Amino acid sequence: MRGLLLCNACGQEFNIDSTFPRCTSCGEPLEVLLTLAKPTVNSKAPTLLERYRDFLPFDRDHAWISLGEGGTPLIKSRGAAAGLGIGNLYFKNEAMNPTWSFKDRGTVAGIGHALDLGFERIGTVSTGNMAASVAAHGAHAGLETFILVGSDLPEEKIVPIAVYGTRLILVEGDYGDLYFRSLEIGPEMGIHFINSDVPFRIEGSKTIAYEICEQLGYKAPDLLVVPVSSGGNLRGIIKGFEEFFEVGLIDRLPRFVAVQAAGCAPIAKAFEKDQEKVERISEPDTFAKAIANPFPPSGNQVLRKLRQHGGMALTVSDAEIESAQELMARDGIFGQPAAAAPLAAAQKLASRGKISDGDCVVCLVSGAGIKSTSHLSGKKYDITRVEIENLGKAFH
Ligand SMILES: [Zn+2]
Asked: Which residue among 125, 218, 223, 248 is least enclosed by CB atoms within 10 Å?
């Protein structure tokens, strides 16, 4: 592997072979620092790791781990955009990944790191998208895979993780502490934990930014709106834009917008109050479970990056998310509630006059709506029942 691990908060450097994802001096998350000497995009390569090989720290070929991550479409909105008065509104549809969320990008990079370090056992702490992603990729890579979840995990969430032959461990106790406990247990048990914001997960996430730039003809959008939970994905996306800018592939960065659910918004709250550190939310209350992290491990780093680049953070209510989810579906994209939060935020910004008609706005659709539909079961849809003899009447 090339490069090193850097703490952006205090500047301390660590070896790229380090398994511990956080700074041992100040506790903040680490990032891969790589000298990018005239890198090029290998646009004919079939996998993500090969396509962006020059931008990633791997020396070895890990293409065989791939289940087909990335290469997701950037869809230009027709219906939603027209309603909001935004001329150029796009959806980056991460639901098109192998396990239907953006997590697959970070997982494939994280497993590459684990293999380079010689691990045969991997793990993660997650109840949702990341659990399924690590379980699937671990199975494909032939690694023993451990998923730690809270003991109250509902049955409907167990199957999409366990089906891959995963070692699923239900843990009683404070779920919020599991992230940190896993970092202690991992080295003792020889398990490499690929949690939400480990440095190599950031390396995977940054490819979202690369793809958006390429899809817009090597231009950055004016506004990029991202749902934020742990903060790892937004960190990766910002890093991707920074790197394309650094090597001259784009001439400016977008304005970054972090969106959180009003019922669990530690980052947006700290941003509004001009605080340097996020505070733990005692009781998260939102149906957008994928962005309900009460104490985001990359929260402080997201705050630093938003401020450095003149970005912003805002909240949207569950009702706003729900209506955005429907609006986005009318554009043909069914995202999970968290994935609809960016459209709800764009809607809010447009109504406040913060988006002008000519702006290019990209909303990140983080994961698929099909994964959780229970909140929609009571909805009234346009459904007609008819007996087959009367089928013709159904079309009136
Ligand atoms: Zn540090």
From this structure: 248
